[in-house]
Request: fold
Amino acid sequence: MSEKSKNDVAWESLFEKHNILEKINITGEYKISATEINTKREARLMTKFDHHINLPTIFKKNDLTIQPDSRGTYMIGKFESYKKLPKNPSISIQEIHFPEYIQTLNPINIYSEAASILCAYNAEIIKDLLGQEVFFTVSGRMSTGKFDYFINNTEFNSPCKISVDSSQCEIDGGFEGDDIFAIIEAKNQDVDDFLIRQLYYPYRLWKNKTSKKVIPIFLSHSNDIFSFYIYKFTNDDNYNSIELVEQKRYQIGSNDIELKDITDILERAKIKPEPEGVPLPQADVFARVVDLLIQIYSNTSLSQEDITTNYAFDIRQAQYYTNAAIYRNSRKTQRF
Reply:
């Protein structure tokens, strides 16, 4: 039997207490308040599922997701809330120079989404991406205002209407040019999908506040590569009308490896014996091991529960990747 997270235990209790599954089967959705969620665990932790894999087990088993419709209420239903990211390694990586005179921002040590956006902006990656001079004008949390939208019901493949009234949204970075305003949602890790709402709610907010074209963009920064996904909504009222327009990849400086680099490391490396008491790694994507090490470096108090809640891992993967990180650290070659 797999281990349950705190969110799993709390949501199972709420589903049983309020007969949520039965009511969804009758009406197609269920509205729950932050006050009700707080009786089991803090709502902020119970509703933050940036990736499909973060969803509690009872949600995944029943094909459910959750959407906020106000600052204190949420809708649960069979909503198509996430968008898979295309994996296209053939897209060339453009090398960008970082200004040498900048001393307060280090592109080698990027430990947060904010730092990744600042590096991309100051290295003029954002300028190249959008094809014009832009200014960093907006970031942080804000209220959505009022609007209605339709989201796909995955069971019946039909739209479901949600009315939003002053829900909270957050923009990692907003960039304004002559005729555009770009909204960027950033993740400092390699991910398979993202929560469309993190682009859609800010998109709807700023469509009503500016006459300029609003461009939603998702950024994944992993293993020193900035991967940008430029999207558009073909129907402003349709949450699932999101379409990929372009994908671009950048890196600051060069990471080219030559044969001499490999032979030099091999000559200097001192092989250490297999560590005792550390499980053999079962992680299958090494870039995510690197991402996790970066997160742990910037926050040494991270627990497996924290990793499951805040990053694109479920409990099983959190165990695999933390064990791989421990193994990697214990096997680190002494070459300096």
